[in-house]
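The record is given unchanged here:
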Amino acid sequence: MKLETAAESFRSVAGAVLNALPLPLIVIRSDGRIIDANVAAEAFFETSAPMLRRQHLRELVPFGSPVLSLVEQVRERGAPVNEYRVDLSTPRNPGDHVVDLHVAPLPERPGHVVIMLQERTIADKMDRQLTHRGAARSVIALAAMLAHEIKNPLSGIRGAAQLLEHSASDDDRTLTRLICDEADRIVKLVDRMEVFADERPVERSPVNIHAVLEHVKRLAQSGFARHIKFIEDYDPSLPPVLANRDQLVQVFLNLVKNAAEAIGEQAIDGEIQMTTAFRPGVRLTLPGSKARVSLPLEFCIKDNGPGVPDDLVPHLFDPFVTTKPTGSGLGLALVAKIIGDHGGIVECDSQARHTCFRVLMPMYAGAGTPGKADAPELVEETSHR
């Protein structure tokens, strides 16, 4: 009896350990049927473990997927096999599901195989985010040079045009006005770029993100997004974020404005969804330190517009990249800089009628938290959905 109790206790602990793993894991028996799956696998395949146990592996993966041949290879060799960047997207499980596969045999059960999945999207996006942050910094020197070398001559050009305007004919006055307008436009562009050169420490304090998002929504609904329906899905138990409130308003107002412009003024079913959630799992390290920083706070701005072109997504946060005919391409670069200065990251998922900008940030940890976060470097990532 004691042996049976000990065995049951061990199985219970083993099951708890598997469910605690952040990576999806499934067990396949010799005929290809699924006999077990952990909680992360339920989330990945968007179905419960009992439903997974009723299915064959080929029903979960795309037709002709390399997963099937990998399982057979593991059975034949009796040794683990790894495969990288395998797409497991299916009509029943759409979206971006590129994973690294780790397939291993179960020696105690001949023919049984364990498959562990590691999603690549979050690592790839975080790598891109670090690149975007570097690109934003590269604008700093250019901004400082432009401010000094362009604004001063422009003020002289504008002043001369105003003097000429007093003695010019009606036709020529149109040209002098054009000179003034274009000079003003260039000055505004340089002013926006000067923000990148601001290296002062960010003054931060505990901020209620829901108050920030509510303020942004009111601003949007009273102006550029009055024709769009807003949907809020907030986690009311979310702790404060350590941030500068004004800069967060600037970030999310920019993201909401981009979403509204993507939807367009003619859309009759335009929707912008604002969500907040606690998502533990992503950890970064500070330069020159072994301390790791967690980014558990997730804030999303989603829209049902046409989506971002695939070739533009990897460069979306780079300066001067834009899809707008009259855009400067500095809005999202500024978003990346502000979030980077706060020790967070921003990423984008985009498909037709489903574009999501996701901001990951640290939470407020008390009075001892430093006032300015150094830009972190990616050292570790776990499954994040």
Notes: The mean pLDDT is 76. The longest strand covers residues 98-105.
